[in-house]
Amino acid sequence: MTQSVVVQVGQCGNQVGCRFWDLALREHAAVNKKGIYDEALSSFFRNVDTRSGGDGPDIYKGKICSLKARALLIDMEEGVVNEILQGPLRDVFDSKQLITDVSGSGNNWAVGHKLYGYQYRENIVEKLRKAVEHCDCLQCFFIIHSMGGGTGSGLGTFVLNLLEDEFPEVYRFVTSVYPSGEDDVITSPYNSVLAMKELNEHADCVLPIENESLFDIVNKIHQMINSGKLGSTVKQNSMVTSSAGSAKTVQEKPFDAMNNIVANLLLHLTSSARFEGSLNMDLNEISMNLVPFPRLHYLVSSLTPLYTLADVNVPSRRLDQMFSDAFSRDHQLIQADPKHSLYLACALLVRGNVQVSDLRRNIERLKPSLHFVSWNQEGWKTGLCSVPPVGHSHSLLALANNTCVKPTFIELKDRFMKLYKKKAHLHHYLHIDGMEQSCFSEAISSLSDLIEEYNELDAAKGGPRTDPSRLKIAV
């Protein structure tokens, strides 16, 4: 069994990470009734003997003693990390997994990347190596961060570069939360575009997520519950719509419901690595099969059914409807419509009691309505995990390498240019050592090149589809 290490950076990254660890523990508790430390748990947790005090030796078999997350928590403000350490998850982390400061990055990518990055480089590398030493077969790093702030975007992408330098053979999956157009951080377009250049160059896969889409999904869930269509009872200890049911009852924070959707995405993505299935999909297979060109590694994700997220007591949605929903714009985690754009490849990760024949039937049913690039008409990757989400019979995560991400990038570029044409707020960045105006021009050039690559693919979509010529055989 392989292991993964989660690096959560900045306020958003740590809040999402907190929800991920909470949901992961609940999921394993539902499956692992005997409290035995098994391979499934080992993928994200160490079992540590803490009886002698401190960070004792790892225990590889037998009863669970003390679970420690394979994680590194980084934030240049102490608030969120301190909350985690005082909350129900406090025993899952120890001080050797934390890197904090007190002053924050002030919504400035340059402060996070150039200032704190170099200041904390050795400390970050040392703690990463410690986490890696506890893994038998490290497969993947997950970075969770936001693009709009200073620490998440700046220090988050600095850590991404470090991972490539120090562990070049280990896959780097990045979950990036993009700001909405009405974001309250005025400099978020600068931070996002500067971070995008680093993601283009150093990530293996990026799962872009937009705050606006998360907000819409949360509203849909509440509407479904309140309308009575799905029944009005939400299960006790609801996994995703609230944080109630944790070890301590805490007031639900404003972003908990949105963060839980991202956490649920990561739970689903890693389910095959943690549990058995008739058609398991390794994390490295996602990158291998879904990323045909190095820079085009942005995967649009959709989760279905939505009420799996809400933990509403209702009969299961029809299986075929679940597959249809995965390709509708209402279920995407960015503001996009993949059905009317071009697919380079698509992965379907199904959890629960679903057969391979169900998968094949639905792919054949949906194929005529989806536009796949001419050289990859059979660009499907499928995975079946036999363990469903807690309290549900089945669910589906679709990951699409699709040109529908382009409008998100174009809007980001437009918002960047509005500020950059006026040179507004540039002085806040340029007074940081190592930060020059060329950083901005290179970043916008990198984003423009990425958009152009998607444009070229879209231009080919409209052309006539021709079958490749066949070898003529003389008779």
TrEMBL record:
Gene Ontology CC terms, in alphabetical order: centrosome; microtubule
Domain Tubulin/FtsZ 2-layer sandwich: 279-414
One Gene Ontology biological process: microtubule-based process
Positions in coiled-coil regions: none
This protein's UniProt keywords: Cytoplasm, Cytoskeleton, GTP-binding, Microtubule, Nucleotide-binding
Origin: domain of life: Eukaryota
Cofactor entry: Mg(2+)
Subunit and interaction comment: Found in a complex with TEDC1, TEDC2, TUBE1 and TUBD1.
Protein name listed in UniProt: Tubulin epsilon chain
